[in-house]
Design goal:
single chain; mainly alpha; 6 helices; globular
Length: 100
């Protein structure tokens, strides 16, 4: 196997672009359990970045967390954002919110 060197280029992306949707969603899930006061800000940031980079699944998860935090207007938006997303856990979370 050939040896490969990878050079890390700094300052090409903004800090928001460096963090992936997966990391932001993990932070949001941890905050929901450990410190729910952080959820609104983290969910808003994830939603903003997901919309900016056209990541509907992460946008839908952000909306789910916003709805769980009390903003019921986000349920319908989560349903719309999740259309076409193949993630049963996401659809179950949205259905549970819709049933409340």
């Amino acid at each position: 196997m050939p040896f490969v060197t990878v050079k890390v280029i700094e300052n090409v992306f903004t800090p928001e672009e460096k963090s992936s949707g997966h990391i932001a969603l993990a932070q949001l899930n941890l905050a929901a359990k450990a410190d729910p006061r952080q959820v609104p800000d983290l969910a808003a940031r994830l939603y903003r970045d997901a919309v900016r980079f056209d990541l509907p699944e992460f946008a839908a998860w952000a909306l789910v967390h916003q709805a769980r935090s009390g903003d019921r207007s986000r349920v319908a938006l989560a349903q719309a954002a999740a259309r076409g997303v193949d993630n049963p856990a996401l659809h179950e979370a949205i259905a549970a919110l819709a049933d409340r």
